[in-house]
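Team,

Forwarding the record for the chain on the shared tracking sheet. I've put the sequence and predicted structure together so nobody has to dig through attachments.
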Amino acid sequence: MSGIEGKVVAITGASSGIGEATALLLAERGAKIVLGARRPERLEALAARIEKAGGEAAWARTDVTRREDLSGLVELARDRYGKLDVLVSNAGVGLISRLDDLRVEDWEEMIDVNLKGVLYGIAAALPVFRDQGFGHFVNTVSTAGLRIVPLQSVYAGTKNAVRTISEGLRQEAGDSLRVTVVSPGAVRTDFAERMDPAVKGQIDKMMEVALSPDAVARAIAFAIEQPDGVDVGDIVVRPTAQG
């Protein structure tokens, strides 16, 4: 029996990219998956795919900028499966641009999704984990927070804020909870779809060497499958060709 089999894992941003790949891999390894994202038709199709392969999945439309949606996702896990072992806070947006462009609405959206969305997940799951006496937070951050470059100031700032909060949470968590941050580099997703066309061109070029989302999913699975008492704190996953 693997360290994943039988665990109940809720995933935000589960309708595509890293979230979708993680859901499929963990379900294949025996986890019960609770899917959250803003596109219900994608969630319904993914849940059906998991069930057709012999797995178990539930889903709920989840906008991580709404605290009540995160509470609902956690409650869905408990109502359907009786517990929640892992919350993977993966939802994120990368509306990168020059600060001179003053795209303040984009800054606010990144703060709301990338930072406040993770905090709302913590607020929903932490009391449940405390009550159970076990639980694992897995937060997707980014290598953008490790190497600061132009255009990514606010995006990197939100990811570094999550990194800092995660470390504080780890230290407060005690010996019964686990906290992991996973920092992907370039990954083939729809990350660049809403960017300014000039910026999108740069990102699309980087995608030529990007990882498959499956690579990040395997890193998340590695952290989850560790025995009780083993906390994998920080994983960086990037293409060998990435600078």
